[in-house]
């Protein structure tokens, strides 16, 4: 069963309103029911028209995107996808918007550095994902709905049959003698908020390095690392080529480069390089987690968090085959249970935990002090 998703586009740029509208109009199941030129107008039209999803420009005169998103989320409004400019200010505001309840973001497709077709694919995918349930409930308002979960859109790519991923969190004894030496953490949609609920809870004596891949466009990973660093006891930095991994430090892979590792005389160093064209994501959880597995073997500890798609499965398979251990986020606490589900279904996850227990689990497995409450 297909359902039409109603979209409200909020942007002060006529060019951007038209560009996003054309992207949506190319899809048979997406309909832009209105546009707004300011945050104030967007809030008013959202209350009047009750769209299924909103695209919200970050920077607008008057009531900006952050304030409009805060107002809408406080009213339990529809999912909001932020449209962010590739500026330091745009990235900072976008991260704040995610923290107050916006579900995701895309880079503003008005730059020569942005792949317009890629942005269109991402926007359509995210509108479908976050707008489907709202659209289904709207279309069936007043009817008896047999299932709480809406059917998959006919227009969406068919997903292969998936057995139920584990939802409980059995705590098997670790059949291992090796100590963990490095954490490989991968995430995508919902990741910035998830990271803000994990990294700041780790104690100062966290003994091993953490390598993080968060799917983001260029210009966003440094502000993300700086925000996490300001809230954390451990050090959080954007990874630099040639940096030596140190315990008690988290390294966020920079957008637009693949992160690998190499053993050198002084320890293990970070190797950053452009993608060879083989990866859908740059940086890729697959590339990073495989590198951690190949470098540390049984000392590798993988963590897979909320995100669309299945990035991480192949890399975690390498990590597991070399003796590593994997922790996966559970469905209930995931913004999108895609990447953790794919890893769990592939049989790669040793322990499933809710987001609120990830920091505690990392401390338990590595012998660190109790997490910060």
Structure at a glance:
With about 375 residues, this protein is an alpha/beta fold. Helices cover about 35% and strands about 20% of the residues.
Please explain how this structure is put together.
The chain has 373 residues and is α/β, with parallel strands linked by helices. The chain has two domains: 5-139, Rossmann fold (3-Layer(aba) Sandwich); 182-366, Rossmann fold (3-Layer(aba) Sandwich). The chain is 33% helix and 20% strand. It has eleven helices and 14 strands. Helix 2 (39-49) runs parallel beside helix 3 and helix 8 runs parallel beside helix 9. The longest helix is centred in the middle third of the chain and has 24 residues, at 116-139. The radius of gyration is 21 Å and the shape is elongated. It starts with a strand and ends in a 7-residue tail after the last helix.
Helix content: 25-40%
Largest sheet report: 7 strands, parallel
Structural class: alpha/beta
Overall pLDDT score: 89
CATH homology group of the largest domain: Methylesterase CheB, C-terminal domain
